[in-house]
Hints:
Helix 3 (75-91) links the parallel strand 3 and strand 4 (96-99). 19% of the residues are buried. A four-stranded parallel sheet has the order 2-1-3-4, with helices on both faces. By secondary structure, it is an alpha/beta fold. The protein has helices spanning 19-31, 49-58, 75-91, 107-121; strands at 3-9, 36-41, 63-68, 96-99. The protein has a single domain (3-121), classed as Rossmann fold.
Amino acid sequence: MKTAVIxxxxxxxxxxxxxxxxxxxxxxxxxxxxxxxxxxxxEFTAPTLGECVGELVARGAGxxxxxxMFIARGGHLKREVPEMIAxxxxxxxxxxxxxxxxxxxxxxxxxxxxxxxxEVAGL
Length: 123
């Protein structure tokens, strides 16, 4: 079964906002040869999660992992995103679509942010 990953970010009206997410996508692609690594957004920026899932299914993905690129699990991730995932599962019942844990709550990310804070603050 072909697996794909969607890095799922909030989005913003300013297109430059997405540049760090695109850098992350490029780095993940480098480390995940043969796996489709796409980037989708909740709002303001294209593509949407639904558009991205549709494209990956059309390209043969049988398993899609949606990885929230959020700092913490707030309102969007507690309510809206699970509803979106449920709707996508109904639309694509032959595809295993899962919602991964929020990236910002992972220990490695918390440690990296702390290290960067110390460095930037010159401590």
